[in-house]
Input
Amino acid sequence: MQEELEQPTDQSTFFWTFLDQAIMTIERARLRARAISNNE
Output
């Protein structure tokens, strides 16, 4: 018997979207900091 996958709720979708955006923002900041330190 196959288990049905739970449908994501709006709240969980919002949470994962927010987390994804936060991670991308941190990565951009790290890359920018690395580029600045390499140019000094």
About this structure: The chain has a mean pLDDT of 87.
